[in-house]
Description:
The chain has helices at 3-22, 41-55, 79-96, 99-103, 120-145, 158-161; strands at residues 63-65, 105-110, 113-119. Strand 2 (105-110) and strand 3 form a beta hairpin. It has a three-stranded mixed β-sheet. It is built from six helices and three strands; from the N terminus they run ααβααββαα. The chain is mainly alpha-helical. It has a single domain, classed as Up-down Bundle (Four Helix Bundle (Hemerythrin (Met), subunit A)), CATH 1.20.120.450.
Amino acid sequence: MELNESLIAEFRHEAATTLRMLERIPADALEFRPHEKSRTLGEIALHIANLPGLFIAPLDREEFDRDDYRVSVTPNSDLIERFSRNSVDALRTLKSLTNDALFSSWKYKSGDTVIFEMPRLAAIRAMALNHLIHHRGQLSVYLRMLGIPLPGAYGPSADEEA
Length: 162
């Protein structure tokens, strides 16, 4: 079995769960911020929408310069489309990665500065999937604070069971 098959299955599950959560974000709540040091709901959602394009899709190259990745700086109504497009690109890359490629080194840069270098497999787990799940957890707290019912992630949520 190729390792990418397991990663593809995991990514598909996490992407579907994330999409269901992004779909629940009310357009009039994008500026909601639970604390002065917190990001706004819109900023968290935009970051989530971009993650598959930042940490999975570019793994088909030897390195990636995040300065070349164009993102809008304000959240808007294209969050679902952006996440969906980035997820399609991420899946295309995951399907192309062999075991040898997954164990080979990959660089994530900002201009001439190497932010990190690690095997692609580690980048997928730590920087893509875990990162996505972390911010989706934050998003779930924001939505809960706004009284928005949450979708289940690993089974039904308390809102779906009620």
